[in-house]
UniProtKB/TrEMBL annotation:
This is Arsenate reductase family protein. Coiled coil: none annotated. The lineage of its organism: Bacteria, Pseudomonadati, Campylobacterota, Epsilonproteobacteria, Campylobacterales. It comes from the Bacteria. PANTHER family: ARSENATE REDUCTASE, PROTEIN YFFB. Belongs to the ArsC family.
Length: 113
């Protein structure tokens, strides 16, 4: 079963859900607003993608918090991602072959439940 981490009203999450539904791939949506990721989730994701990929520096949360001005170490970035899940690039897709971050139809084609 594929797990999608994100928020329901996010455009990229909606595209991912539509893609999975169109391919008949079963999934579970884990909403960051009701079920924030755990440090264990984060460490698992980081086995497949870099911190740079996960850390969304383009979003409004990043700008609102003024994180650009801070010299964040990898450890501090991890703390922020757990404390403020909206800083995580969405969606995070966990599937049998690994983890995909963001929406990319070409990458999704290679995914198997």
């Amino acid at each position: 079963m594929v797990k999608i981490y994100g928020i329901k009203n996010c455009g990229s999450v909606k595209k991912a859900l539509n893609f999975l539904e169109s391919k008949g791939i079963p999934y579970t949506l884990i909403d960051f607003k009701t079920t924030p990721p755990t440090p264990q989730d984060l460490e698992h994701w980081l086995k497949f993608v870099s911190l740079e990929v996960l850390f969304n520096k383009k979003g409004t949360t990043y700008k609102k918090l003024g994180l650009k001005e801070l010299q964040l170490t990898p450890a501090k970035i991890k703390e922020w991602l757990i404390k403020e899940p909206m800083l995580i690039k969405r969606p995070v897709i966990v599937h049998s072959n690994g983890v995909i971050v963001g929406f990319n139809e070409e990458t999704y084609q290679k995914m198997q439940g």
